[in-house]
Amino acid sequence: MTQVDSTTRLTEAELTRLVAGLLGAHGVEPLTADALARVIVAAERDGTLSHGLARLPGYLSSLQSGWVDGAARMTVTDKAAAVVHVDAANGFAQGALARASELAIAKARAAGLCLVSIHDSHHFGSLWPDVEPFAERGLVCMAFVNSRSRIVAPGARRPVLGTNPVAFAFPRKDGAPVVWDLASSVMAHGDVILAAKNGHPLPAGAGVDREARPTQDPKRVLDGGALVPFAGHKGFAIALMAEVMVAGLTGSRFGFEDESGKYPGAVTSNAGQTLVLIDPNRSGGGDFIGRVELLIGALREAGTERLPADRRYRNRAVAAAEGIAVDRAMLDLLKTG
Ligand code: NDP
Ligand code: PYC
């Protein structure tokens, strides 16, 4: 631990222990606390600040409200040759995925692909930490999450779909996988919260107020307003796909079925998560990795300097060398709960 002014730098392992300890003190069972802490700290480490430590107060207030069950007794079912189902029993999705991962990988290798269907879960984090580890194991992976109504369709009066993110990861010959992960809105709700906290306006075209009028004031978006899908009807189509891939396939709540209002302090969404794992050696296409390298070579040769995840990997290398900065208020929360 290194102290500089009001900021302390912690190693990833130190910070993960503190976050898991705090979640455990708020009733989260050990496996889920560990999985959740890893995801929160990974987001902070890689610079996805909308879904890192800033999310901790939201996790805690949702737990305190009784809306999410940190000690949920989850059930993993071997549903079919290429399907793993998890009943997350109103717990955190990361705990459900941690329980299902090894079975899903084995099925993907045996059958060529595997659908992971997570029912009745809360996902309040970044999605890329869910797909990257599968690509590190040689699989292609796609993931979808739905959440409470937050985006207003082009021409509509009120939001129905969530900022539903989609993530995609594939392995490379050498080195880290290529991973993208994006909200279906112009900006993530988590970034609106950060803008409100820091007193920054939103970019034009990102949000609307409670009367569906365009606004750049993050507080108006948070106070009954909504977000706009990225690229208009295209982002809306992606959000719709995620809603069907998740709530439709897993039987979890649609965003508009949210009942968190009955639980003051609840900010997470009770919904679901779907992942699709593909073994590229079983798809019949031959030399997948060689073809991927050919494609990336062509992109580089054409002048593409940045691939998705490059920014995060750069931040990760800095964090490994210098530690992860934690301000005093956050350190107090982590140490005193
Ligand atoms: P961004 O718009 O910041 O990034 C989207 C993707 O584009 C990333 O993979 C990013 O890579 C990549 N990217 C950005 N700029 C470039 C570029 N110039 N060239 C190539 N690739 C680029 O993400 P969002 O704001 O949409 O989402 C932020 C986070 O919010 C995500 O982690 C998402 O999962 C989370 N979220 C979670 C929700 C939930 O329900 N749990 C709901 C909505 C969002 P890189 O990472 O390297 O920057
Ligand atoms: O940032 O839009 C968001 C979000 C929704 C649920 C978790 N994060």
Molecular structure report:
α1 crosses α2, α1 crosses α11 and α2 packs across α4. The model has no long low-confidence stretch (mean pLDDT 97). Helix content is 41%, strand content 20%. A hairpin with a 2-residue loop joins β1 and β2. The strands form 3 sheets. It has a 7-stranded mixed β-sheet with strand order 3-4-5-12-6-7-8. The longest helix is centred in the N-terminal third of the chain and has 19 residues. It has 337 residues and is of the alpha+beta class. It is globular and about 50 Å long. It has 11 helices and 13 strands. Bound molecules: NADPH dihydro-nicotinamide-adenine-dinucleotide phosphate (NDP) and pyrrole-2-carboxylate (PYC). The site of NADPH dihydro-nicotinamide-adenine-dinucleotide phosphate has 27 residues, from β8, α6 and α10.
Q: Which structural class fits the helix and strand makeup? A: alpha+beta
Helix and strand sequence = EEHHHEEHEHEEEHEEHEHEHHEH
Count of DSSP strands: 13
Average the pLDDT over all residues and give the rounded result. Answer: 97
The ligands found in this model are: NADPH dihydro-nicotinamide-adenine-dinucleotide phosphate, pyrrole-2-carboxylate
Strand order of the largest sheet: 3-4-5-12-6-7-8
The helix content, as a percent range, equals: 40-55%
> Could you state the oligomeric state of the chains shown?
single chain
Over the alpha carbons, how many angstroms does the gyration radius reach? 20 Å
- What about the largest sheet? 7 strands, mixed
Low-confidence stretches: none
Number of helices: 11
> N- to C-terminal separation?
19 Å
- Assess the beta-strand content as a share of residues: 15-25%
What form results from the Cα inertia axes?
globular
